[in-house]
């Protein structure tokens, strides 16, 4: 839609949540002029820090990611649900600022976080070389004060046994001219009795400093806490009426896990909160779609505390009085006609570089050079997209001539290194090209030899993966039409809840990413195998 058309379009009436369906957690919302941006976490996936763009808070389009290459972030060896946590996007003095945390660990009270800052004159870049900030804690964010100073906030991690690991929110000055932190950090806020205080964002309004934090952990006990102070360094008083937003105690709500919010003010002075939610398949059950982004309208009378009606997440919210600005619909089928991946694709643990993601050697095909096994964390070859609905499908057509059983190419329903389903072409011991199915549930693999299909006579093979509520189904087409494999696989193992594991009170694994549908090529012997994908069609139903 052109700008001229948008100016006369009917004002958008309502925001339908979630505005970003599927794996889009920890939203940082920003307005620059008439443009709104949402930056979300990406963990072990490239491009890091996914960004969406809107003109009316109703319609959003994917712009791709900001952290696109190893110059900005190296995810080789990154563990499941490590990597990029809770980015923060701000604008000041004609420049975009992006802060992001690279979290390396979360065992025995350690996180090993490293915070980085990059800047750019435009949301599309070019982005500067990263400034290495501190590693005191994750969820770092910038605050640009009215006096021109800039400050870095983050949660303060305490590794010492017997201490509160989420020790509060700390603040330290950032010198924009020298591009470094100066002075000593100060503890700003220790949180409420709910605990797990993180995700800070600071705002200036009506002579107050307003501190927004996430508390209660990122699951069912999640909430948005508001505190305020007349002075930057506090003391901060907490809203006496409790959290601004939470789903706690309301298992009847469709939107759960409400928390980790950031505020934005429209051109007309209206306030909205972007925040994290989850949509479990059953009450407080598994969230296969991962943690998503929703937006709530905030009533904020001058001098008073901000309020969201009922303090709970609503599925439909009154939109601001802005001209409606829908974007062109994403095409259902990607024919791979460009020399770069479309913004809806992500790659696992390594950027989509030409040495393994090749869109030029064979026009209108995606050539994927094989990588490591499912447990490999340095060079896997997986090109995937987020699952955005409880019922959706990905179809592709692949050409692949494997040497032996060490080369595999196909389609996957994927969560992490331990939880996935994979339908793939390979060669058996007799030299036949065959279709095989393999699943992994918490690292326990299940093969289905009775479902093996002889694909020796087909040069082009259609493959399909379908999410049908709590089950995953696979199909294939050898040239005579689609056939469905007669097995219903468990989709709920591809969820945050199933991936999380606590042993003796310590997190042995977290689940933060949601499910993916993808194109997966493995070359376990390092013999140089590749597969050509002619197209990929994603649809929701």
From TrEMBL:
GO terms for biological process: carbohydrate metabolic process. The active site is at 26 (proton acceptor), 198 (proton donor). Residues 333-539 form the Beta-xylosidase C-terminal Concanavalin A-like domain. The record marks 139 as: Important for catalytic activity, responsible for pKa modulation of the active site Glu and correct orientation of both the proton donor and substrate. GO terms for molecular function: hydrolase activity, hydrolyzing O-glycosyl compounds. Keywords: Glycosidase, Hydrolase. Belongs to the glycosyl hydrolase 43 family. PANTHER family: BETA-XYLOSIDASE, BETA-XYLOSIDASE-RELATED. This is Beta-xylosidase.
């Amino acid at each position: 839609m052109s700008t001229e058309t948008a100016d006369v379009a009917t004002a958008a009436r309502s925001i339908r949540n979630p505005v970003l369906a599927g794996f889009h957690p920890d939203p940082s919302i920003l307005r620059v002029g008439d443009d709104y941006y949402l930056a979300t976490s990406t963990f072990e996936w490239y491009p890091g820090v996914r960004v969406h763009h809107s003109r009316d808070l109703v319609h959003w389009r994917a712009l791709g990611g900001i952290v696109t290459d190893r110059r900005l972030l190296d995810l080789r060896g990154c563990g499941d649900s490590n990597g990029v946590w809770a980015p923060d996007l701000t604008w000041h003095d004609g420049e975009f600022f992006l802060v992001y945390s690279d979290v390396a660990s979360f065992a025995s009270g350690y996180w090993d976080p490293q915070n980085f800052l990059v800047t750019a004159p435009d949301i599309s870049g070019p982005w500067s070389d990263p400034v290495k900030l501190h590693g005191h804690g994750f969820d770092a964010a910038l605050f640009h004060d009215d006096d021109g100073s800039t400050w870095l906030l983050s949660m303060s991690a305490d590794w010492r046994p017997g201490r509160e690991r989420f020790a509060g929110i700390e603040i330290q000055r950032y010198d924009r001219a020298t591009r470094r932190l100066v002075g000593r950090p100060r503890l700003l806020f220790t949180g409420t009795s709910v605990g797990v205080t993180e995700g800070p964002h600071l705002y200036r309004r009506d002579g107050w400093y307003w501190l927004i934090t996430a508390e209660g952990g990122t699951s069912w006990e999640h909430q948005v806490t508001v505190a305020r102070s007349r002075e930057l360094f506090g003391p901060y008083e907490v809203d006496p009426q409790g959290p601004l937003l939470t789903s706690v105690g309301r298992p009847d709500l469709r939107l759960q896990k409400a928390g980790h919010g950031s505020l934005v003010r429209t051109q007309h002075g209206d306030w909205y909160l972007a925040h994290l939610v989850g949509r479990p398949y059953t009450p407080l059950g598994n969230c296969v779609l991962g943690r998503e982004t929703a937006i709530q309208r905030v009533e904020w009378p001058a001098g008073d505390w901000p309020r969201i009606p009922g303090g709970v997440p609503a599925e439909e919210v009154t939109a601001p009085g802005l001209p409606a600005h829908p974007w062109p619909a994403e095409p259902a089928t990607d024919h791979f006609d460009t020399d770069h991946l479309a913004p809806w694709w992500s790659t696992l643990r390594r950027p989509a570089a030409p040495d393994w993601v090749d869109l030029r050697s064979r026009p209108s095909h995606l050539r994927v050079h094989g990588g490591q096994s499912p447990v490999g964390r340095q060079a896997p070859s997986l090109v995937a997209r987020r699952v955005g609905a409880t019922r959706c499908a990905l179809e592709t057509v692949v050409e692949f001539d494997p040497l032996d059983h060490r080369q595999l190419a196909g389609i996957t329903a994927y969560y992490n290194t331990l939880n996935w389903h994979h339908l793939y072409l390979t060669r058996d011991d007799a030299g036949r090209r065959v279709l095989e199915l393999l699943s992994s549930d918490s690292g326990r693999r299940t093969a289905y030899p009775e479902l093996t299909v002889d694909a020796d006579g087909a040069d082009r093979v259609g493959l399909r993966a379908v999410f049908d509520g709590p089950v995953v189904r696979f199909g294939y087409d050898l040239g005579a039409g689609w056939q469905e494999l007669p097995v219903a696989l468990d989709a709920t193992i591809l969820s945050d809840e199933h991936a999380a594991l606590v042993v003796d009170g310590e997190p042995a694994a977290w689940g933060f990413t949601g499910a993916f549908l993808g194109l997966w090529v493995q070359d376990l012997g390092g013999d140089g195998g590749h597969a050509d994908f002619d197209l990929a069609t994603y649809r929701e139903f």
